[in-house]
């Protein structure tokens, strides 16, 4: 097989350009290969980021592009950090983040633990469980508004069927107390499989001989679970939390379709709040400062978290 | 003890299996409900109690692809009997088909932008991943982290300057603009995943080829690429699914010519509360991804963790 791969006959007659590329030194070729990627990322990520920082120091409004630009220094930042609306959406985001992470970790780990019992057909059922995660959150979120309809909605009907309360008596999306839970339920439904898959990889990475040794030492199953299973899966679980945390901090599509931030602004997560400021009120300068604050927050939290993760891994 | 300590007992397996199957059945209910609603009549869709057994109809699909207008009895009489099966469905409601809906266009936009950006991000991603995998690149770790960190920005946050930039360059609401944007977003995924796949190909193959007189580029093109096909294919599917599902940029940066399906599907509902049409649109849009997910299941974990967990 190797002979076939390297047989000389398969080297075609190189054209002029081909010869020029082909003749490059390794170092030059490395840059030729990397630069297009870096350039595109600079153009579509870093340049806009710098532009956002610049805009955040002005009173620019994108719908009145001809107005004279006024530099306002850090006033936008000051106004944001003292705005109670923004603290409300930060709080809504924190509530959403906390409960989705708790539920997804608990359910995801339990499912992985059960699947790891290697019952017959576990591959098939795993694939079925994973399906919701890969689908378009906006399209699925939109359809959940139908499932959440009082009375005719499947969700209300199922709840009524199990608990016996009237399916027309509650509205998941319309009720101020239930709406925050409506988005948590859908996000948990969608993303629990993500945590499950990562935990499953963690469980499968534990070599059998560790349990066998524990058995020889007469450690109880309960003790094995807390001293072997949990510590070995922890780095995987923490990685899953990192991914979910970043994603849900940015959460937009699912919730915007599901509740649109309502009722009132009870489910208005920061991304939805930001969209409103930037693309409905057109306060471009102000919302640029808002965007920078969000980015610094997620970046800062993620960096601290990664440090903690590395410490756990090293143990 | 006659069995290994790590092999669960039959009772344990049975218990675990039952719980997982119950969870799986509950979790796919919403999906089966989408598919089922697509084949209901509008009346059946909002029936109470929710109908599990109903007479299937293609009304939802007809409504999805057409625009219809109400016709007076005289016009209907003038038109004579319906010519086709879809005419017949529409006539039940004293309506006539007045033209195609926008769903087809939006779906096609999703296909063009999805495939276009996937092709570009795989092309650029493979080159960069090969370089990061095989060459000594200065600041390699920093560059790799920089590429990953572009994924941490909330899309809405970058959307403000991109919106302004596209407006300046005339890229707003164009296929090219969306392809470039999705490529940039997907590059982090494709570089990280592909680097993992290429890392796994033994360097010895290329070294043998180099000794045999191949140039570095030929070795990459004729030795490494063919070996990386599976990795490239699964990375491509991940990029395609991401571009396919993306909503935030699409809703902010496109409105007409380049609008993809995700921002469009929720608007199908209109004033008539036509849930079967929405469900039909969602079904056609979601089913391809379900099929891909099943095909990808071996590489799924790797894809969703950017190659951090390889199993």
TrEMBL record, chain A:
Keyword Repeat: no
Keywords, in A-Z order: Membrane, Transmembrane, Transmembrane helix, Transport
Transmembrane spans: 28-51, 96-115, 127-147, 178-203, 224-246, 288-306
Keyword Hydrolase attributed: no
Gene Ontology cellular component terms for the protein in this record: plasma membrane
Alphabetized Pfam families for the sequence: BPD_transp_1 (PF00528)
Gene3D superfamilies assigned to the protein according to its UniProt record, in alphabetical order: MalF N-terminal region-like (1.20.58.370), MetI-like (1.10.3720.10)
Protein origin, superkingdom: Bacteria
GO biological process, one term: transmembrane transport
Cellular compartments annotated: Cell membrane
Membrane topology of this protein: Multi-pass membrane protein
Residues annotated as domain ABC transmembrane type-1: 90-305
Main location as per UniProt: membrane
Record family assignment: Belongs to the binding-protein-dependent transport system permease family.
Protein known as: Sugar ABC transporter permease
Record organism: Aquibium carbonis
TrEMBL record, chain B:
Gene Ontology BP term (one): transmembrane transport
Compartments reported by the entry: Cell membrane
Similarity annotation: Belongs to the binding-protein-dependent transport system permease family.
Membrane topology recorded in Swiss-Prot or TrEMBL: Multi-pass membrane protein
Keywords, ordered alphabetically: Cell membrane, Membrane, Transmembrane, Transmembrane helix, Transport
Residue ranges occupied by any ABC transmembrane type-1 domain in the UniProt entry: 107-296
Pfam families named in the record: BPD_transp_1
The species this protein was found in: Aquibium carbonis
PROSITE patterns: ABC_TM1
Entry's transmembrane regions: 14-36, 107-131, 143-166, 178-198, 219-244, 275-296
Protein name: Carbohydrate ABC transporter permease
Gene Ontology cellular component list: plasma membrane
InterPro entries: BP-dep_ABC_trans_perm (IPR050901), MetI-like (IPR000515), MetI-like_sf (IPR035906)
Superkingdom as given in the UniProt entry: Bacteria
